[in-house]
């Protein structure tokens, strides 16, 4: 059973619930934010993902990628699908028109990548890195470097990597040792070993553009000594550069994406951004990249849910309490309360995840292009605060919810042929990469909330609370008050006991996620269609099975502070 | 890094905390319950598991088992390890002396299998089924059948299977269609397809004894029409019987155990128990088998914890809040609060799981052999009520806690060479087999608690409460009261709305598990060693990070009823 993008659901949230065109118009102009333009893009994207990318999910797992003598062969069909993707112009969707892009809103790219990840996580890893590399180069590259590389990245003619991690430097990039020695002509010779490089070597494109974090000979130790270098696989004159793939990892899942050990051996490179500005150059794309990963969580959960729903609608076992199908010896398990609860609960996460991630995608564009400086700043705060929450909470649910969906299959879920266990294995990595979920929690509480005493988060919560009027929202408004009060007390407690916020950062992130989810469901509840079974069931699942955790987390924060 | 049985921990809980010998003496006599006897058995078992079985975990995953032309080849070394296991007499540990067994308490076998599963889940699947088949045959087999098969099962010379599931009959065994036609000599010809048969075919022993659930020609439909048949791979005269392995499943994990599709083609078999008594014959061993699976959860979690602890003690990344190692650029991650929380939380589950599972193992022997009928009945209730709770809650934690341990490794956790992702994949099956965890919850609430209005559970809770005196236990005593009150209200609510208990059976099981865990930690807290860092840290993790869920679940039960 191949994944089918649920176009109507995505469209409903993007256009009806959030009215993305109205929100984006002041920033992007009437043309880029035209619903008459968005609709056909979404329809075409759904067709491409369902028709071309989804059927390759199983071969992505087995045989997966193969390594031999420095070369990586991607699974059968992957290269053709990528060429079709490129020829249809999908990489250029949100790139600037002057670089050959289509200049469409980020959020449309977000929907496209949600679907691509749901359909085929492994395949999608390759193009998913393109946009970040493009943004990084666009903002920090020299004019010569931009002229030589931006158009090929916007068009997807060449793919890109982020070469950051080293064997001893993972969450702590400041420990990286890769060296870059300046040459007389302004270029650099880059040497060092990078691990966990997604798409470090493959056969999808001829050239691969590596963005490599390294250190100049006279650089200080720690993160401030890091610079970023563009190191192409093929040099401008067509020769091979000294960028070698020594191995691909054997992993729990994601076998469709080669995870490479890359050895840079006096490879020729050019600096992106100034010396010591490597992390700053990368952080340009951090929010966008982490939001992509949050949408992987949403997409993979939706894919797991589709499989589980399909199985539950065709498998008969035992009797359902209540009305029975007397003509058969057993009822469909979709009617069993324990199964219903699993399905409705995942739907509640998927729907709220879309509301929050799409709104954040809209804010990404507003932060960049809104004419009002105050609105830009508010959008910037929204993105900065919500991105780690969405990344951690929805990749967590992507894995755990997919495992819950596996449970719907009973023993069949543990067997490969049903496809669900692949999603569980694939989705596990999203809790780790782009900053582990523990790092996201520390980023939220220690770097973004406590330093200003919770002021920026308070402004976001106030914005949420303004949408919540009437008695039915009283519990959520109370929760917002409690979260604010706990934030203040934590800021005080941290002064005396600096370990405290580190201990409970994960609870703080969960509480914030559940407040946001409550807001998302209140937005959904305000729609005319809220009473339909499609929306009523997950709304009830949120209220019954998910929301109780919010009180628990708030209680833990209050006890700790 | 191979698993090392933590002998001192297990011994401490079995002998110091629970004083198993004193509890067992009235039932088994001074000799079988002699601590002087138990200690060397535990020591020898720890040596065997660590030295012989643990080193084969990785080959169990890759290459795993291979299938060709009806034959299954187990991974290199598996057969030799099994022969060593058999020759050392381990299968016979808790079998009756008259069958060639050693007649030791069940709980010793429990500890042995906790270690075996932790060391090598796949390998352990083969001997894990032996004892259940032995008990089933011992209680329900004819004298001739017992004479022909019991000694070989007790000694482990032959291995056994439970052939229950069919493609359309999983959780609902009443749908099984396998047919058994009586022959003139009192034997039967058994025909049908069984799936998910662990160890249905292998090269560990020459003969394999299948216990097959089937239906006589005139049997009624549904579970009451099921009978149990002993069908050997090799007939008494040495010829092959009509029991064929058509395929082994490709699974998410547990590749060291062949999961077979078995085709019985007019296979010769003999009935075990009377016609229509198939499920009754099997249910003899249900508590024991499910308790084994609960101990898989405990063991696999402990194995994951050993790996994560080892990694966290050697990996330096970033600075720990508080004291730092200035001679190095970063501190060991074991000092990071988020990592510490993961490790201590898993330890809290492992320790409490041991207390509860070992006590339940003791009760299994008391239920069978205590001279006092009232004590036997109380033990029977304890086993009946606690077994589904331990099976569901600790296999759930086995998987989710192993995944948390994987998180400690960051990206390295996702890579095969570290071994942690194998434990995550292997452990997932325990949430499904021996009755899915959803079925366990229904078994607890719908079949065991509500029918007597919560009386039997009330007696168990009263027994727990008697151990809890003093102010420090007030929250747990309050929780016990709330659970009792919620039970009464659920019984009433169920009369009007029969779906309600099905919806919240999972919450009910979790609340019960957390009450039991609270009791276990109060037992541990009453020991002289409770203040040592080894026991203080997980105790604190239980109180801070685990216990809050209890209030949440109780609140959900109260809202629902």
Automatic annotation (TrEMBL), chains A, B:
Residues spanning the signal sequence: none
One MF annotation (Gene Ontology) recorded for this entry: flavin adenine dinucleotide binding
Cofactor needs: FAD
InterPro entries listed in its UniProt record: Acyl-CoA_dh-like_C_dom (IPR025878), Acyl-CoA_Oxase/DH_mid-dom (IPR006091), Acyl-CoA_Oxase/DH_mid-dom_sf (IPR046373), AcylCo_DH-like_C (IPR036250), AcylCo_DH/oxidase_C (IPR009075), AcylCoA_DH/ox_N (IPR013786), AcylCoA_DH/ox_N_sf (IPR037069), AcylCoA_DH/oxidase_NM_dom_sf (IPR009100)
Keyword set includes Protein biosynthesis: no
Acetyl-CoA dehydrogenase-like C-terminal domain mapped to chain residues: 474-527
UniProt keyword annotations, A-Z: FAD, Flavoprotein, Oxidoreductase
Occurrences of domain Acyl-CoA oxidase/dehydrogenase middle (ranges): 162-266
Domain Acyl-CoA dehydrogenase/oxidase N-terminal: 75-157
Lineage: superkingdom: Bacteria
Name of the protein in its database record: Acyl-CoA dehydrogenase family protein
């Amino acid at each position: 059973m191949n994944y089918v993008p649920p176009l109507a659901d995505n469209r409903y949230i993007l256009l009806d619930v959030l009215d993305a065109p109205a929100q984006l118009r002041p920033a992007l102009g009437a043309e880029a934010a035209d619903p008459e333009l968005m609709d056909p893009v979404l329809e075409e994207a759904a067709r491409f993902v369902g028709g071309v990318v989804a059927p390759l999910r199983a071969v992505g797992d087995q045989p997966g990628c193969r390594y031999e003598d420095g070369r990586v062969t991607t699974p059968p069909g992957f290269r053709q699908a990528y060429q079709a993707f490129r020829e249809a112009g999908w990489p250029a969707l949100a790139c600037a028109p002057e670089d050959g892009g289509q200049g469409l809103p980020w959020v449309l790219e977000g929907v496209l990548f949600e679907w691509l990840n749901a359909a085929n996580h492994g395949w999608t890893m390759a193009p998913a890195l393109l946009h970040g590399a493009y943004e990084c180069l666009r903002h920090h590259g020299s004019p010569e470097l931009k002229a030589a590389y931006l158009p090929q990245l916007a068009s997807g003619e060449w793919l890109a990597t982020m070469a950051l991690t080293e064997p001893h430097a993972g969450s702590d990039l400041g420990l990286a040792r890769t060296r870059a020695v300046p040459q007389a002509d302004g270029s650099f010779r880059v040497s060092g070993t990078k691990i966990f490089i997604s798409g470090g070597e493959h056969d999808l494109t001829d050239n691969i553009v590596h963005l490599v974090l390294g250190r100049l000979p006279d650089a200080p130790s720690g993160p401030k000594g890091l610079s970023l270098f563009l190191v192409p696989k093929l040099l401008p004159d067509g020769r091979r550069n000294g960028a070698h793939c020594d191995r691909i990892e054997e992993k729990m899942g994601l076998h469709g994406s080669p995870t490479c050990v890359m050895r840079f051996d006096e490879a020729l490179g050019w600096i992106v951004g100034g010396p010591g500005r490597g992390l700053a150059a990368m952080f340009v794309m951090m929010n966008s990249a982490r939001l992509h990963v949050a949408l992987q969580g949403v997409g993979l959960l939706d894919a797991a849910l589709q499989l589980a729903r399909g199985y539950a609608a065709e498998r008969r076992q035992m009797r359902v309490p209540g009305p029975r199908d007397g003509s058969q010896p057993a009822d469909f398990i979709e009617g069993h309360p324990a199964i219903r609860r699993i399905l409705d609960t995942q739907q509640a996460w998927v729907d709220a995840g879309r509301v929050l991630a799409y709104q954040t995608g809209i804010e990404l564009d507003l932060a960049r292009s809104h004419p009002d400086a105050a609105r830009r700043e508010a959008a910037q705060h929204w993105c900065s605060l919500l991105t780690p929450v969405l990344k951690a909470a929805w990749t967590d649910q992507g894995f755990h919810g997919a495992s819950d969906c596996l449970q719907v299959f009973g023993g069949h879920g543990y067997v490969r042929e049903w496809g669900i266990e692949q999603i569980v294995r694939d989705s596990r990595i999203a809790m780790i990469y782009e900053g582990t979920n523990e790092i996201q929690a520390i980023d939220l509480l220690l770097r973004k909330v406590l330093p200003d005493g919770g002021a920026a988060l308070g402004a976001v919560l106030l914005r949420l609370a303004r949408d919540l009027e009437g008695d039915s929202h009283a519990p959520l408004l109370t929760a917002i008050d409690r979260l604010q009060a706990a934030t203040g007390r934590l800021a005080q407690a941290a002064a005396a006991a600096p370990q405290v916020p580190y201990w409970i950062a994960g609870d703080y992130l969960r509480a914030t996620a559940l407040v946001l989810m409550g807001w998302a469901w209140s937005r959904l509840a305000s729609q005319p269609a809220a009473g339909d079974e499609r929306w009523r069931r997950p709304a009830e699942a949120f209220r019954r099975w998910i929301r109780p955790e919010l009180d628990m987390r708030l209680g833990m924060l209050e006890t700790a502070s």
